[in-house]
Design brief:
By secondary structure, the protein is of the alpha/beta class. The protein contains ten helices and 13 strands. α1 (about 5-15) crosses α2 (about 20-25) and α1 crosses α4 (about 60-85).
Length: about 300
């Protein structure tokens, strides 16, 4: 059994489509089919149920998939540990995040300082965060979603105050603050139902005594801003980007108040390379310095 066979098998198992798997692996489909057949011959059982134009993991395949993922994960951790022991300066880093809004600047600064570190970024949806146990290759998760699983540690990076986003022509656009129950009859746009951020926003509305009338749902923060700008509805948003940047009016929510915590999280039992540790220290310090600078600016404004 070869490592390449395992990697090819896991790609076919994930896609359950031989042609798409071959395209992703950049090999010819007949070569991929022969590799999978040799693996099945080595194991003595078929791993897939095959029908015309259809391939599905069978019970043998599902059992083997779990072990193959664990084997690849252990080998990857072994490679990273050997790199550290040998004193290699370059390293690899795998990050999972929902959007680049909060980390674009620190990532650029980190790559400028550590040019030999290769960063691979995975764009995660809220659905992906429900299946974190299946993503063993990730070093760090950068997210506003609480990770409610055993075996994870986290460090808060930003505490975002929540705002009500409205278009410039909205009747409440000139408000300095707002009570959420003032907009209980307004149409809302936001995240899809049952997504963690949607549930957090709905709970804030529940505390204000109403259930928001959702007219548009999406998974992307940028799409929410677009929908508000277009006049489809209003939305509860975080405070990372200013209203000017989003071309929206962001009104502080006075009652009930709420916040989101943007965090860096990682599996406690995962081996963290020197590159990973350097990144964690860098991004934590970045946001500490940013918070300290914000405090100094507020103090200076108060003294005027």
């Amino acid at each position: 059994m070869e490592l390449l066979q395992l990697k090819y098998f896991l790609t076919v198992a994930r896609l359950e489509h031989m042609t798409r798997a071959a395209e992703e692996l950049h090999i010819a489909q007949p070569a991929l089919s022969r590799t999978i057949q040799r693996l099945e011959e080595d194991l003595g059982v078929p791993l897939f149920d095959r029908k015309p134009r259809q391939i599905r993991l069978n019970p043998y395949g599902k059992a083997f998939e779990a072990k193959a993922k664990a084997a690849i994960h252990l080998l990857e951790e072994g490679r990273r540990e050997v790199e550290d022991l040998s004193g290699l300066k370059q390293g690899r880093l795998h990050l999972a995040l929902m959007n680049m809004e909060q980390v674009k600047e620190p990532l650029q600064n980190f790559l400028s300082e550590y040019q030999d570190i290769n960063i691979q970024i995975y764009q995660f949806s809220t659905e992906d965060f429900k299946n974190l146990k299946k993503t063993q290759e990730i070093d760090f998760h950068l997210t506003s979603l609480p990770i409610q699983l055993e075996g994870y540690s986290e460090i808060p990076l930003i505490r975002e105050k929540l705002y009500l986003a409205v278009p410039h022509e909205h009747k409440y656009a000139d408000r300095e603050s707002i009570h959420l129950n003032d907009v209980s009859e307004e149409p809302f746009v936001g995240y899809k139902e049952n997504s963690p951020l949607r549930m957090m926003n709905d709970e804030l509305c529940r505390q204000a005594g109403f259930r928001p009338k959702m007219v548009c749902e999406t998974e992307e923060p940028a799409s929410i801003a677009d929908l508000v700008r277009s006049g489809f509805g209003i939305a509860i948003v975080g405070g990372c980007k200013s209203g000017e940047e989003l071309n929206l009016v962001k009104i502080p929510i006075e009652d009930p108040t709420g916040e989101r915590i943007f965090r860096i999280a990682w599996q406690e039992n995962r081996y963290l390379s020197k590159a990973a540790i350097a990144f964690r220290e860098f991004i934590v310090n970045h946001f500490k310095e940013e918070a300290a600078a914000g405090i100094e600016v507020r103090k200076a404004l108060m003294l005027r």
